[in-house]
Design brief:
Blueprint: E1 4-5, E2 10-11, H1 13-18, E3 35-38, H2 41-47, E4 54-56, H3 61-66
Antiparallel strand pairs: 1-2, 3-4
Length: about 70
């Protein structure tokens, strides 16, 4: 994903502009450990997991193997 500026964890707007790609096509860049939601009660009852269990952003295989 060459459009991500790893140094400041933002989409590289100069590159996107040069490639004529709109930045709104990309999701917000967030830290891999950021809590992005909590398990809904109706899903918790089906899975046996506790309602409200935090869900984190996570990362891809290469990003996850690098550490934080």
């Amino acid at each position: 994903m060459g459009c991500l500026n790893l140094g400041d964890r933002t989409w590289d707007l100069d590159l996107l502009t040069a490639l004529d790609i709109k930045s709104d096509l990309f999701s917000q860049v967030i830290h891999s450990t950021a809590i992005v939601g909590k398990l809904k009660p109706e899903i918790a009852s089906v899975t046996g997991l506790p309602a409200g269990l935090p869900s984190v952003a996570g990362g891809g295989d290469n990003a996850a193997s690098c550490g934080d």
